[in-house]
Amino acid sequence: MRRLSRVVATVTAVMAIGVSAACGGDNPAPSAAPSPAPSSASSSSVEPTIPPIPKPARRPSKAGAAAFVRHWVAVLNYAGATGDTKALRRLSTNDCIKCAALWNGIDNIYAGGGRIEGGGWTVLETKQFGPTRNRYFVDATIKSDEQSLTQSSGATPTAFPGVAKRLRAFVLRPVESGWLVAELDPTA
């Protein structure tokens, strides 16, 4: 079970920075993260909030599919920053294997006292296809920020470089409330 947790956490780290082997290209190697600078008591931080779903992301159209992918990415960023994966789970089907690897990895890291800092995705552009067999397909060009991942309480943080552009493929299933991610980076 412990090995599975490590594997899922590693998948989360790799997915969060957008460098999986399925996308091709060279994968930057992680390195030990520098020790964080002490924070001053006067510095203020704003707690992230769950991004509300925009109206366009509920529409059963190509534009709606693109808006939903942007929303899903915003919710993924929220989950990584807070450890709260409930909203991400609601936006994905239960049989989306890579989605489950993401939320399970995030859950395991935070349950073990770890944390994820940075690594947020930004959708640079999208290209939509469909519908085909009641599915829409969205190719999203994603930029990911540098990330520091601490697997558990007391563990040494691991740094992952950001990635300027990485293609992510989303398969969406339309539902009454809008959309669900049915697959992330499906294999051919």
From TrEMBL:
Alphabetical keyword list: Signal
Record has rRNA processing as a keyword: no
Signal peptide start and end residues: 1-21
Source superkingdom: Bacteria
Annotated spans, Disordered: 27-60
Protein name: DUF6318 domain-containing protein
One Pfam family here: DUF6318
Domain DUF6318 residues, every copy: 38-153
